[in-house]
Amino acid sequence: EVQLVESGGGLVQPGGSLRLSCAASGFTFSRYWMKWVRQAPGKGPEWVANINQDGNEKFYVGSVKGRFTISRDNAKDSLYLQMNSLRAEDTAVYYCVRDLGYGDNWGQGTLVTVSS
Amino acid sequence: DIVMTQSPDSLSVSLGERATINCKSSQSVLYSSNNKNYLTWYQQKPGQPPKVLISWASTRESGVPDRFSGSGSGTDFTLTISSLQTEDVAVYYCQQYYSPPHTFGQGTNLEIK
User: Where does the pLDDT of residue A7 fall: very low under 50, low under 70, confident under 90, or very high at 90 and above?
Assistant: First the structure.
């Protein structure tokens, strides 16, 4: 069974940083693209970034370019999202998703709240 | 970026009746080299992550009831629930994965009349 478990969310002040992690199991992690999708309270999902199997291809939504960095460690079956210069509008539940183009498996998400 | 627009924003349908949700993309999501539409449909219930129902515009995911179907090509797509059940109450989203960023529609809130 595919499992994706996010961690690292919490309350952070504007301008601060946070690193999200996702532990994957139940599938061969190194064979799949992976992505982060976020959902602000009461809003629809927003695709944030994705990364290829080797970690040498990455794409970002415009609003996070230069502030967020997606990465992975295939030896640890883990996906990461380093978030810097956080803004109030980054407040959301962040989901780790296995990426077939569409997301066929989603974690339960971790809540990031950016507030003073 | 490709803009995805769903209609309606909300929909009220009687049990056993048909529900139809539309999704329009600002540019074609049909990849000519393989004749596939890079369009998916998700269902989201409160407190849960989205669940994929349909991929490639019309391919039902394993375990999804056959009352759910997807159709359309190019820029215009439809999700149809042939006979609404109580467990279908949810928000439905379309998403394109033709080119990054893989944008979502704004969602359609489906309820029982």
Answer: very high
| Dihedral in degrees, nearest 10, Cα atoms A41, A10, A46, A59 | 170
Q: In this structure, what are the phi and psi dihedrals at residue B42, rounded to the nearest 5 degrees?
A: -120, 155
SS3 (DSSP) at B108 = strand
Q: CA torsion angle for A7, A114, A37, A19 (degrees, to 10)?
A: -40
Contact assignment for B49 to A109 by CB distance below 8 Å: yes
CB atoms within 10 A of CB A7: 13
Closest-CA distance, B71 to chain A, in angstroms, reads 16
Over residues A64-73, the pLDDT tens digits come to 999 999 999 9
| B contact residues 6-65, partner A, Cβ 8 Å cutoff | 38, 40, 42, 44, 49-52, 55, 61
